[in-house]
Amino acid sequence: MKLEPIYAEILSVRIIPNVDPMLAKQFNLSPSQRSLGLFTITMDDVGVTALDEATKKADVEVAYAHSFYAGADHSSGPLSGEFMGVVAGPDPDEVKSAMEVIHQVVDGQAYFEALDDEQSHSLYAHVVSRTGSFLSKEAGVEQGGAIAYLIAPPLEATYGLDAALKASDVELACFYGPPTETNFGGGLLTGSQSSCMAAADAFRQAVIDVASHPVRS
C-alpha cells in the first residue's frame, strides 16, 4: 500500500513583540523572554515537531503547546485547528526566525500519511534525527538524540507500538495512551537514528496491516 502524505495547514499566526507582564506570568516566562510567537495548525503532532525544530534554530523556548479536544473537525472556530503553539524569545527577531522554521517544517518536512483515498484514516511515523529542547523534555532524554514520533488511531497505535518496540533497539520514552485529546494514540521511542527509522517502518507496516485487514485476529 502506497501512503500519500497529508500536510498540515497553519491557520493563524501572530507575534507579540513585547508581551504584557501579567500574560508573561501566566506563561511562566523568564525576565529575558519578552516576545511571543503564536500559531494554530490543523494537525497537532506536526505542530509539536515544528516547535521542537524551532528551538534548535532560534533562541526560543516553547511556552505553550496544547491539542484541542476532538481534533480539527470539531474546532471552536475556523482558525482554531486542533493545536496552538507559542514560542517565547528575547526579542521579535528571534521569534520571527522561529516562526519561519515552523513554516518550513509544516510546509514540507513533517506530515501524516493517508491509509485511504479519502484521507480519513492516517498515521504519523516521523523520525527526529536530533531533538531540540521541547521534545527532549517531553521524552525525558538528553537533547540531541533521535526520536521516533509515532501516532495513529487507538488500536492501530497500540498494535503498531508493540511492533515498533520489537523491531529494533529502542525504548518507549513517552506513551500517549488512547484516546488523546484528538482521539489518537502513540508514543515517542528513543534510540539511535537507524533504530528509530526501523521502528518507524515497523510501526507503519503494522498500522497498514490493521487498515488492510481490520477484523483479522
From TrEMBL:
<feature type="domain" description="BMC circularly permuted">
    <location>
        <begin position="109"/>
        <end position="217"/>
    </location>
</feature>
<dbReference type="InterPro" id="IPR037233">
    <property type="entry name" value="CcmK-like_sf"/>
</dbReference>
<dbReference type="InterPro" id="IPR000249">
    <property type="entry name" value="BMC_dom"/>
</dbReference>
<protein>
    <submittedName>
        <fullName>Microcompartment protein EutL</fullName>
    </submittedName>
</protein>
<dbReference type="InterPro" id="IPR044870">
    <property type="entry name" value="BMC_CP"/>
</dbReference>
<dbReference type="Pfam" id="PF00936">
    <property type="entry name" value="BMC"/>
</dbReference>
<dbReference type="InterPro" id="IPR009193">
    <property type="entry name" value="EutL_PduB"/>
</dbReference>
<dbReference type="InterPro" id="IPR030983">
    <property type="entry name" value="EutL"/>
</dbReference>
<keyword id="KW-1283">Bacterial microcompartment</keyword>
<dbReference type="GO" id="GO:0031469">
    <property type="term" value="C:bacterial microcompartment"/>
</dbReference>
<dbReference type="GO" id="GO:0005198">
    <property type="term" value="F:structural molecule activity"/>
</dbReference>
